[in-house]
Design goal:
4 domains, Glutaredoxin, Serine Threonine Protein Phosphatase 5, Tetratricopeptide repeat, binds zinc ion
Length: 499
């Protein structure tokens, strides 16, 4: 419907790469850059510039509303503004997909993508999807799905004009739906909805009720000054505190009372909203527009297809490498295709071929943080394999520093630098660097696992074990498995008595 995050179960089927030949009716593709956003579009310059301007406005408004929060993207963000629902679905899922979306949020540690249909009245979708990115940068993995969607819906009604910005207005359709429905989901059911739930993945009245009630509860929390209590609530629940107790501790209200208050709140006549001064009235003067060639577009499409799936086989990676190779035949110096080919070879463990592609990409476009990050990833893999002597003139640190000078908030770069420091035995700095990665991207439980690993290697057992016990409660089964592995008897036996 509105939003989609890749739930693994939907994509375990065979990965079919889309054909990436230029089509006869290829539209003009443009790249738009504003101070904080990069967009590519086939939907025309005027509308795409307005998308960038509105994202800039929302970003500023968000920081005014939540001054302690960050609006820095944990990984470079690319917004893809398209001409139809079909283009959004095709790009996210490959051909043959059945789900329909006006917007899709695809977070990643190396790049994040927001895909948008901007053909018709797109602003609610634009704000909704960008709200997911802002939330992603500010909350841990314990956040529950109702808050994700409720927060995104809360921001989706943002209104901006030369007079000012309003945040928190009522989405009339959703409120009417709630009133006609006359009852709400029990909170015990609402907090259980996750990205694999039927309620979340199937269009219908239950899904509509979920979105509407999620919006209502987030609106209630903002209205009652409780929004900052949400993260402690999620952390408590993730640590195993029962729902009633977590609600009481965090929001100072009993569950039944909160359910009654929400019903009354939905029937109310007055919904407060925030009115903020105008930030940026129109398109920023700093917007630049350039034409994109079709090989670049095809290379980026392949990258997005790859990100849209959580499972990749060796055959997929080989097909990906073949697709990039054929793109490079058309444009041998294309940096997006060189990077894509290098990363496909990295996936295949073919380090020399990967190095050739990624080094070439960095040489061609040294101002791309994504290129430096890709090369740093490869060099990290080469280090782990003990093959660093093959390229003595290159180092993870050098590429990471090039990357952070371009994108200082790029979390994964700090992770790579931490691993490089640890490989040289410098655990204190490695741990500090890994903590920085976690601070910049608090959703990434894999970074927390890496931190625990570094602490164990430094014999800092107490914080390591505390972190691992916390990760044992993760909703991600892979994280649980890895935490349990670390907590295996070997590790436990290594803990000196008294700890
Ligand atoms: Zn959403």
């Amino acid at each position: 419907m509105r939003c989609f995050r890749p739930p693994g179960v939907l994509f375990l089927g065979l990965f079919m790469l889309a054909t990436v030949n230029a089509r006869a009716s290829d539209p003009t593709w443009l790249q738009i850059r504003s101070p904080h956003f990069r967009l590519i579009t086939d939907a025309g310059e005027k509308r795409a510039i307005e998308v960038a301007a509105r994202c800039e406005q929302m970003r500023s408004a968000f920081l005014m509303l939540m001054p302690k929060a960050t609006a820095d993207d944990p990984a470079p963000l690319l917004i893809v503004a398209l001409r139809s629902h079909q283009e959004v679905d095709e790009l996210a899922q490959g051909r043959g997909g059945k789900l329909r979306h006006a917007g899709i949020f695809l977070p990643g540690s190396d790049q994040t993508f927001i895909l948008l249909d901007i053909s018709d009245g797109p602003w609610r979708t634009v704000y909704h999807e960008y709200a997911h990115e802002l939330l992603h940068a500010n909350t841990s993995a314990s956040v529950q799905m109702w808050f994700e969607e409720g927060f995104a819906e809360y921001f989706s009604t943002l209104k901006s004009s030369s007079k000012g910005i309003e945040i928190g207005e009522v989405p009339i359709g959703e409120l009417q739906f709630l009133r006609q429905n006359g009852k709400l989901l029990r909170l015990s059911d609402l907090v259980r909805v996750n990205q694999n739930s039927d309620v979340y993945n199937h269009n219908g009245p239950l899904q509509a009720a979920f979105y509407a009630q999620s919006w209502l509860l987030v609106h209630y929390l903002f209205d009652h000054g409780l929004i900052n209590r949400a993260q402690p609530f999620f952390s408590a629940m993730a640590a195993g505190v029962p729902l009633d107790q977590a609600i009481l501790d965090s929001f100072r209200i009993k569950t039944e009372k909160l359910e009654q208050e929400l019903l009354v709140y939905a029937r109310g006549e007055k919904f407060r909203y925030f009115s903020l001064p105008a930030v940026i009235a129109g398109p920023s003067p700093d917007v630049t527009v350039e034409n994109l060639n079709l090989v670049t577009v095809s290379a980026l499409e392949l990258e997005i297809h790859w990100h849209g799936r959580t499972e990749h086989s060796k055959v997929d990676a080989m097909a990906l490498a073949a697709d990039y190779t054929s793109l490079l035949r058309r444009d041998p110096e294309n940096t997006a295709a060189l990077r894509g080919l290098g990363l496909a070879y990295l996936e295949l463990g073919e380090y020399q071929a990967s190095f050739d592609g990624l080094r070439h990409a960095v040489q061609r476009d040294p101002n791309s943080a994504v290129n430096h990050h890709a090369l740093a990833r490869l060099l990290n893999a080469i280090d782990i394999a003990g093959l660093q002597d093959a390229h003595p003139e290159f180092s993870v640190e050098q590429e990471a520093q090039a990357c952070t000078s371009l994108e200082p908030h790029f979390a994964d770069v700090y992770r790579l630098e931490a691993l490089a420091l640890a490989a040289r035995g410098n655990f204190n700095e490695a741990i500090a660097m890994m903590r920085q990665a976690i601070a910049l991207s608090p959703r990434m439980e894999s970074y927390e696992l890496s931190l625990a690993d570094l602490e164990l290697r430094k014999h800092d057992y107490v914080p390591a074990l505390a972190l691992l016990h916390q990760l044992e409660n993760s909703r991600d089964p892979e994280v649980v498995k890895r935490a349990e592995y670390f907590l295996s008897s070997d590790v436990q036996e290594a803990v000196p008595s008294g700890h």
